[in-house]
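Hello Y.,

Per our agreement to keep a running log of every chain we model this quarter, I'm adding this entry. I've kept the format consistent with earlier entries: sequence first, then predicted structure.
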Amino acid sequence: MTRILTWLVCIAWLLPVVANADQVPARGKLLVATELVQGELFAKTVVLMLHYDETGAFGLVVNRPTEVEPDELLAAEDSIAGYSGTLFWGGPVQMDSLRALLLTDEPPEDAEKVIESVYLVSYDEALEAVPGDSSRLRFFIGYAGWAPRQLDKEMAHGSWRVLPGSSEHVFAREPKTLWKRLTPPQDQRVAAF
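Predicted structure for the entry above:
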């Protein structure tokens, strides 16, 4: 009986650790801004994590489509001339850089798997893989980045919730409503004020 009680106490002690493992940012997870995140840059954003370790973290804001036409911003890039899809604001870091996410079950050779059928690819590879099909391709200007331990501090203050990512989230038909769909109603009311 003592052995069983000891075993149950150990399991009860470990349960919070196991439950909290899902709350750790990692590649393919989503960071959803809580009501504590204010300001125009990150309030009501959803970030797909691409990298997280002791050197820092970065990802792409997946719920901020822009009104900018691709050829306005990327006129010098001949390969993107035929792309008529939406450009997304990926974050405030390196606004002169372009990243692409591709939804496919047959990724290009150099593609980096993020989740399920979502791959980080060069924009040339993306355009070759699905020419003209903007429903399976997302381009992002800039990215969201954090210095070492910066994201950990923000998480400790309750600024972000971590959720599992999916292709349905990343390639949402209505990306502007993604934050609302992923945020509990009570947090939405607080964020509105």
